Amino acid sequence: MNNLLADADLCVKCGLCLPHCPTYNKTQNENESPRGRIALIQAWAGKHLETSKKLVEHIDNCLLCRSCERACPAVVPYGRLINNFREQIKGERDATLSVSLMKRISHNKTAGRLAQSGLKFYQTTALQKTARLLKLPELLRLDKIDRLLPDYHEPKPLAPFYPATTDVKGNVGLFVGCMGSLLDHETVDAAIKVLTAAGFNVSIPEQQTCCGALDLHDGDTQTSEQLAATNCSAFAENSLDAVVTIASGCGSQMREYRQADFAKKVVDISQFLVKSGCDLSDQLRPLAASVCLHTPCSLKNVMREEQGALKLLQQITDIKIRPLPAAIQCCGSAGSYMLDHPQMSQALLNDLLNVALEDRPEYLVSSNIGCALHISAGLRERGVALKVLHPITLIARQLK
Length: 400
Ligand code: SF4
Ligand code: SF4
Known about the structure:
Layout: H1 2-9, H2 22-27, H3 34-45, H4 53-60, H5 67-71, H6 78-88, H7 97-107, H8 109-124, H9 127-133, H10 136-139, H11 143-146, E1 161-162, E2 170-175, H12 178-183, H13 185-197, E3 200-203, H14 213-217, H15 221-234, E4 242-245, H16 248-255, H17 260-263, E5 266-268, H18 269-275, E6 290-294, H19 297-302, H20 307-313, E7 320-323, H21 337-340, H22 342-356, E8 363-366, H23 369-382, E9 387-389, H24 391-398
Parallel strand pairs: 2-3, 2-4, 4-5, 6-7, 6-8, 8-9
Antiparallel strand pairs: 1-3
Helix pairs in contact: 1-3, 1-6, 7-8, 13-24, 18-20, 22-23
């Protein structure tokens, strides 16, 4: 409680964060702003406010995009404040079926494999179409997960080690993430292909597990710390120059692990390649296409590595890259937020899609799988056949 008050007391109520807050911009309600939420937590921690459904709702409506934290001159640790508050009121919040299911699948490899087989059966038989016709996902309250499912692709089994295919520049560990290994094999394969082509030996430790973000944001610090310890031990090999991530949501969580030696090695894959001075331009085929670049909040506001993807993609000749304007804030995916807060999540997604589609791009790239799934679902619902890829996938596709 003391930590909570100390963090909340850092806020000088200047309001400079307000224009950066997507939920405040949508509602114009102070309780839905960073300053308002901090004031609520301050009052609660100081015992001037009871725990109530309304209080929990205002805090839970936060996307944890941390745009406010980046804008704050007083350096209020907003993310830590919200996570600590949620931990203290853990018993007062109901876990939704979708989030419980996501946690089960992400923590347990057997559950993950079962989900993969189930997904294959669901999508490669007539089951998905029939279930949707009969509105079964809605009846089972799984419609919000069902809308996110990408087309099924048979995963290739991963080896623990891939040697560089050119002069060796270094050794990296690849964090594939629970959702990456379940739903986005193309990005995992692309990361291996590009890193080895750039001269890096790639280790993929089998023991790696979920990054723990779902648990931390759900107030379960204990589970999140257990998962952090497992990942630190999985990547403990001293020779690794970096732990490279292909999902900035996971990267931002691991960057803030208490194990500082591990945390400082965590880096987004595009940023890593650019910072390592890798010039792949001679190895890439030109691409005369227009690409809309989405920068996830976790990459921008927590990892602060938003330039990597742009600089890496600029190595492709003839490509036209249009980053989304700063006025487009969070896409609304925000981990499990898109499942629990469909209205706000959809409103933010609509703003993004309206702007993204103005120039009729051939590709939309995003460095976070959660955002990519959410944006793809929105495009499918609009009947727009626009490809959403990870930047590294586009690079891998252009490799000669
Ligand atoms: S910018 Fe920082 S100090 Fe100012 S109101 Fe927002 S959180 Fe408080
Ligand atoms: S984390 Fe994002 S949604 Fe939450 S208060 Fe800050 S800016 Fe607003």
